[in-house]
Specification:
The protein is 35% helix and 22% strand. The chain is of the alpha+beta class and 324 residues long. The chain has one domain: Aminopeptidase (3-Layer(aba) Sandwich). The strands form 4 sheets. Strands 9-4-1-2-3-10 form a 6-stranded mixed β-sheet, sandwiched between helices. A two-stranded antiparallel sheet has the order 5-8.
């Protein structure tokens, strides 16, 4: 894989193309919504208050939802899965009024007590997908975030991420360290050299899965995933929307209907690459019963979510990319 000798030239294309959720479902939702509507005559699918047509799949009757009854945020749970586990868990919270997206990461080792499932591994939140599917994951993440409503889910495998990144022509990244790790049992082989380079699909997956070299392990990987997402978000502006969207559509599983994708896309028209902030739930690593967990600070997490939900236009203008 060649290093970058000069920065790639941006191709001219759809000026409002966006990259969210590693250009997965939100490539269809947030990227080019206005183009879809105007070019393909889909104006009849939009109009009215979008929240009137959305029912949460989790957290709809929580105290948090009752605290913010008039919120115009659409929350999409993204799951990156591998071998039956959700190795990546993120909530993309799209404020339809402020035209802003907040991404909230939930580390895969987050402690989540499950009395009906004995064993240390089953007390990690990434195991919920294996036993309870999308609905169980949505409820678990909502609970960890203090009752925040989850409206939709989107899921993609490692192979799917690789295909979408290849459709984009790769992602330009500065790999912070030499990354070397092998686990034949998982068929996982990671070998990346430090420095600026364009990651193709296979190497992007290696970058996203690497965790052993970070002092904070899972938190280090979460931060790396967020950096990857930010770069991909910025670099997607100018990429040919139809090609990337077609690749994403083939690789993702979601309960977002085409009609709803167009509606959300229409709300996102006019967003800029700066309309994005990344957060991680507060907490600390801890050993319990011989297993390593990330123990979230529930009070601090609830406060973080209130801060996100209480964002005003003035605060939005002052907020840069935020890691909570």
């Amino acid at each position: 894989m060649a290093r970058i000798e000069e920065k790639r030239k941006k191709k001219k294309g759809f000026g409002i193309g966006k990259f969210l959720i590693i250009v997965v479902v939100l490539a269809l939702v947030l990227a080019g919504g206005k183009v879809l509507i105007e070019k393909y005559g889909l104006l009849g699918l939009v109009g009215g208050d979008i929240m009137d047509d959305i029912t949460p799949i989790a957290g709809g009757d929580s105290d948090f939802s009752r605290e913010f009854p008039d919120s115009k945020r659409v929350n999409i749970l993204f799951l990156g899965t591998n071998s039956g586990l959700s190795d990546t868990m993120m909530v993309f919270s799209f404020d339809t009024e402020l035209k802003r997206v907040d991404e909230i990461s939930v580390p895969r080792d987050t402690y989540y007590e499950r009395p009906n499932f004995p064993g240390a591994a089953y007390q990690k939140i990434n195991s919920v997908y294996e036993t309870e599917g999308f609905q169980g994951c949505a409820q678990a993440v909502s609970n960890v975030l203090g009752g925040v409503p989850i409206h939709f889910y989107a899921q993609i495998t490692d192979e799917g991420v690789a295909h979408v990144v290849d459709a984009m022509g790769g992602i330009e990244m500065n790999v912070p360290m030499d990354m070397n790790y092998e686990d034949p049992a998982q068929n996982l082989y990671i070998h990346l050299t430090a420095g600026p380079q364009v990651l193709d699909g296979a190497h992007a997956v290696q970058y996203l899965r690497f965790r052993s070299g970070y002092p904070t392990a899972d938190l280090g990987r979460v931060n790396a995933q967020q950096e990857f997402l930010k770069e991909a978000f910025k670099q997607s502006v100018g990429f040919g929307f139809p090609k990337v969207a077609a690749a994403a559509a083939k690789e993702v599983t979601s309960d977002i209907t085409p009609r709803m994708a167009v509606r959300i896309g229409s709300e996102a028209a006019g967003m800029s690459a700066e309309s994005f902030a990344a957060w991680t739930i507060p907490g600390v690593p801890n050993m319990m019963n011989g297993a390593s967990y990330y123990v979230s600070d529930r009070a601090a997490t609830a406060e973080m979510m209130r801060q996100i939900y209480s964002m005003t236009a003035e605060q939005d203008a002052e907020t840069g990319e935020k890691d909570g």
